[in-house]
Each structure stands twice: as structure tokens, then as C-alpha cells.
Amino acid sequence: MSGSPPIRDLPPLRELIGQEPARKGPNRTQAAIKLLASVARKLQHPSRSLVFYTMREVAETLTMSLSDVSRVYHQLEQEGLLLIRRSAPTLLVSRATHARQTINGVVAIPIWPYAFCNWTDWRRFFSEMTRALRE
Questions:
Q1: What is the pLDDT of residues 44-92, one digit of tens each?
Q2: pTM (2 d.p.)
Q3: 91 pairs with which residues across the strands?
Q4: What residues contact 18, with CB distance under 8 A and at least 6 apart?
Q5: DSSP for 23-80?
Q6: Are 129 and 106 in contact (CB under 8 A)?
Q7: What gap in Å lies between CA 79 and CA 99, rounded to an integer?
Q8: What pLDDT, in 10s, does the model give residues 1-32?
Q9: Which helix H or strand E contains 19, and what residues bound it?
Q10: Distance (Å, rounded) from C-alpha 91 to C-alpha 52?
């Protein structure tokens, strides 16, 4: 992330959630995902990323195991609310930041297969296509 370093200026998690999700049952993880997603949306800053609560804090507050909290965090990362990096604090992504989407491949249908197969500069074609798709 560029710009100023992220700050940790969040109220205690217990104040934000008020009550805990159900302690037992198969939907406990889903309840925690909904709860933390609503907390994350409330706390999102328009232009800065904030340091989010640690997994241990959330596990203690919600009386959940660390593995369950890890699953919740990864789901929130897939939704674009959190940014998890190894050996770094978990960041609450700002509203202005968009989750990066990677390009897994390029689909091209050559009109003239003989010329396409014999084209000597096909690597340039793929690199230009990848660049154009990222813009």
C-alpha cells in the first residue's frame, strides 16, 4: 500500500458487536462472517487502510477457535474487506481501494490459423493482450 502507514485506531470489538453470535450450531461461522463484515463496513475509512483486529482478539471475544476465525478472515478477504499478509498486520481495506483481480489466461480465436501459427511475434501479441486487459 502506498501513502501513509496504516493506523490502529479502532474501538474495542466488544463495544461494536454488543452480543455474541450463537455459541453452538453449524451456522456459527456464517454468523461470525456476517457480524465481522458489518463491523468492517462500519469501520472502513474512505481513504486510509486501518489495522484490523487480530485473530486472537476476535477468537477471545467471540469464544471461537483460531481455525474458525481464520476461515472467517479468509472469507472476508475474498469479499474484499480485509487484506491479509503473512508476518504483517491484517488491514481493513479503505473504501477507495478495490481488490486486485488477477488475469488467469487469455482467450483468443485466430481468424487465420495458418498465419497465426507461423507468426514469429506471438509472444508480443500475448503480452500486449495481457496489458490491454489489465487497463
A1: 887 777 889 989 999 988 888 999 999 999 999 988 889 898 888 888 8
A2: 0.63
A3: 51, 83
A4: none
A5: SSSTTHHHHHHHHHHHHHHHH--SS--EEPPPHHHHHHHHT--HHHHHHHHHHHHHTT
A6: yes
A7: 9
A8: 455 555 677 888 888 887 655 456 668 888 89
A9: none
A10: 5
In order of 63, 116, 118, 119, 130, the CA distances from 107 in angstroms are 47, 14, 18, 17, 10
Residue 17 corresponds to which amino acid? I
The amino acid sitting at 40 is A
C-alpha cell at 50: 486501518
Residue 69's Cβ-side half-sphere holds a number of Cα atoms within 13 Å equal to 16
Q: Show Cβ contacts of residue 32 under 8 Å, excluding neighbours closer than 6 positions.
A: 21, 62, 64, 68, 69, 72
**In residues, how long is the chain?**
135
At residue 83, the 3 state secondary structure works out as strand
CA 74/CA 68 separation, integer angstroms: 10
71: cell is 476461515
What pLDDT was estimated at residue 18? 75
Q: Look up residue 14 and give its amino acid.
A: R
Residue 14 grid coordinates? 466488544
In which element (H, E) is residue 3 found? none
The contacts of residue 104 (CB under 8 Å, 6+ apart) are none
